[in-house]
# Entry
Amino acid sequence: MTRKLRLGVVGVGYFGQFHAEKYHQMPEVELVGLADIDCSRSQEIARRFNTNAFYHYEDLYDKVDAVSIAVPTPIHYQVTKDFFHRGIDVLLEKPITATLREADELIDMAEKKQLVFQVGHQERFNAALMALEGSLADPMFIESHRLSPFLQRAAGVDVVLDLMIHDIQIILSMVDSPIQSIQAVGVPIVSPYLDIANARIEFENGCIANVTASRVSREKMRKIRIFQPTAYFSIDYVSQRITVLSKDGKGRKPIFPGVFAEDIKIAKNDPLESEINSFVERIKDRKKPLISGLDGKKALEVALRITDQIQRNIERRKTSGGLMA
# Structure
């Protein structure tokens, strides 16, 4: 009988605990241990899922086939690199790294060692988005809104890397064209970092994406709308619903002359569970993950361009007296 895959989790804060929960529930996986510098936290989560708690992630090296890494972004690079050195597959929470140079090094290392390197953009596994696969044809305008109440867990990173990067990665997967230009604005509200941001991304093929992210909203919203010559799609990630408007009236109800609407029935899923299942399958079959290291790097590159432009705009306004210093 083939033995169970040995999995571990490094960092069991807000996201890491859910990775541990999913592995614990999988019959083909043995959750062999959790590592976190907060000993009381790792022990608490380890007791919950009947596994071992470690203070040093190095203690997992000879015990695991693969790990989920959900540590603060500034140490993504070093922790992932250390596991790659020992031939261990990695599912790394987004954003991939803090810099593009670090991302390139990890991608290169994983390729040379033929390791599975998956980046944790779990929204790509949302049932509503996955149900749209095969329906997109030359999108020309995309508008997304990702709004959340403020959570203390995200206080150490700006809203672009915290929230908007999900939609950046999704949009890049939809539009097969280089980016021509980016215009962006944003402001800090309750933290030292950007808490609200908007970006207008223009692609060389003429497609335009308007992306808004906020973590100071009273209500949670996760929506994207895609317009193309033949149809308009509206996706609600939270309710996992798709509405399609098109000129095809077959089986659809008219909303005005020549345009018909349909709500697509979807079997809802747990995106993180689907992401974890996909990672485990990639460990087994050694195929390319849905969101590879290169995909994660491309999303990071656009996110950094957006934050850089916002910061330069803020500095210009301060210099010209448009903002209070």
Notes: The domain at 5-122+272-292 is CATH 3.40.50.720 (Rossmann fold).
